[in-house]
Structures are given as C-alpha cells and as structure tokens.
C-alpha cells in the first residue's frame, strides 16, 4: 500500500515526458536515430551491470548471513588478485564498447559537412532570447523559424551574440552549444519527414531561457525553393505613408523586412506566415491547441513585450511613441505580411 503513492508519482513524472514533439525517443532523422541507438546501447549496458551487481549482492547477503549460534567474527580476507583483475577489465571493456560508437557518431556529422557542397548551410546565432538563421548560399536572414528541405544534410554553424545558448531539435538530434569567446561549433541534422519540429535553447541563458524556442519546418525541395524565392522579394511596407515612415524610423532600425532594415532584432520578413510570434505565442496557422490569430498575438506582443518574454531587449512600442491605434495598425500590417510558398 505504501508503494502505491510512490508508483503513482513515478507514473506522473514519466507522463510529463510525453510531449511527443520534444521526445528524443521518436527520432525523425538519421542523426537523431544514431543518438537514440547510443542511448539504447548505454541503457542496455547499464541494465546488465545492474542485474549482475544486484544478483551478486543478494547472493552474498544470503549465503554469508549470520547463522544461528554463530557468535565469532568470521575470517577476514584482504586482496584477491584474480578478482581485482576481473573487476578492472570488465568496466574497461564496457567503456570501450560505449566509447567507440559514441566517438564515431560525434564526428560523423561535424564540420566536415560545412564544406560539403551538397549540404544546405545555415549560420545560427543565439540571442537573448531568439534565434537568428542566416543562409549564406541564398543570402537570407530569418528568425525563429527555420525552413529546410527534407532529406538533405543541413549543416549548421553555431555562434552566439551574447551568452551561452544551446541549439537543440530533439526530434532531429543535437544538442550543441553556441559558445562565447568566438569558438564556433558545427552540427549537421537531417529531417526524414515533412513536418514542423520544435527546437529549444538547452542552456540556461537568462530570464526567458524557457521561452527561447524555435520552429523547424521541413518541406519538399520545390517548397523550399519557393520559400527562398518568396523571401527574396522586395520589402512590403505599411500602405499608410505616415505609418510606413514611423515603422521605418523606429522598427527598421533593428528589424528587417525584405531588403530593408537591420539585423539587430529578429527579421520580420513574412512574419504573417510563421507559426509563432516571438516563438511562444502560437499562431492559428500552426493548428496547435490554444493558438490565436496572428494579429491578436502581434498585438499582445507589441502592447507589452516584457510581459510575454521577460528580459528581452525589444523596446516598448509605447515608449517609442506608438499609440494603441498605431500598434493595432502595425499588427494588422505584419499579420498580412505573408510569404507565398
Ligand atoms: Cu538561450 Cu537558454
């Protein structure tokens, strides 16, 4: 009876791991599959070790227990050459069995792929608290939502703009840190299936670390080419010239739309087609539970960015002189800024 609450608690903890789209146990590509194979190998070895050790311990406890009428201290022994050799050799062998495939996998998808002409290159930069994605071959700089062709090697170069972050797409593999001190990391991922995968920052990096998500949209080749083409279209600005000017002087000093603006904040190009606003407000096009129209999410964000993502560096639009009505208009404009692909 005492075991029951314990088991219930255990079940509860396990069920907490049930977010399918964040599970390393459901690999969606060869890199993630390789990592899962390693996890299985290490768990198998651990289970065998545990069973053998527990069995020996139980045997010794029973066999050498104090028997009735036995009062004297049993004979004390010290040192056994044969046993010591065995219990040194076995762990050594087990570590080797683990190390060889681990090292193979670590180097299999590394910076060699950065020079592979077949690979799609993406320079990833971590920011507090958003992700920048630059495709050097296409000269495209986007944010929060990575679009990749399915089945292709995607070679990532990982950097940070401020503190340590860690780039992780549980379904596809990873994770690897974005280092400070200019050390650059590399990682290659491949998606087997067309789907939207969730990426995470896996290194505590500040107040909104938990909200530093991103999306990975794996699409077929034709859709990827269409996305690249749509992304490179000239910028769309608000139709109202006065609002457009205000948008240009304020927002575009950090953000970019198309070929205009800057790379300091996340790119807003085609933001109306993304599945999230600020990576955590779910847009209805994602079809996710609790999602809202893009415009509503944009209004929520623009009215109070700190309430959505504490500690982010976006200035409060109201402090910049935007009225509530203008914020509505900007949200309307951005929600309609979609990419046709
Ligand atoms: Cu970035 Cu945690």
TrEMBL record:
GO cellular component terms, semicolon-separated: plasma membrane
Q: What class of enzyme is it?
A: translocase
Q: Where does the record place it?
A: Cell membrane; Membrane
Q: Where is the Cytochrome oxidase subunit II copper A binding domain positioned along the sequence?
A: 117-230
- Positions of the Cytochrome c domain: 239-338
Give the required cofactors: Cu cation
Keyword Heme assigned to the entry: answer is yes
Q: Name one GO biological process term.
A: ATP synthesis coupled electron transport
Q: Which GO molecular function annotations are given, in alphabetical order?
A: copper ion binding; cytochrome-c oxidase activity; heme binding; oxidoreductase activity
Q: Which UniProt keywords apply?
A: Copper, Electron transport, Heme, Iron, Membrane, Metal-binding, Oxidoreductase, Respiratory chain, Translocase, Transmembrane, Transmembrane helix, Transport
What InterPro entries has UniProt attached to this entry? Answer: CcO_II, CcO_II-like_C, Copper_CuA, Cupredoxin, CuRO_CcO_Caa3_II, Cyt_c-like_dom, Cyt_c-like_dom_sf, Cyt_c_oxidase_su2
Principal place of residence: membrane
PROSITE patterns from the UniProt entry: COX2, COX2_CUA, COX2_TM, CYTC, PROKAR_LIPOPROTEIN
Listed NCBIfam families: CoxB
Per its record, how is this protein called by name? Cytochrome c oxidase subunit 2
The gene that this protein is the product of is coxB
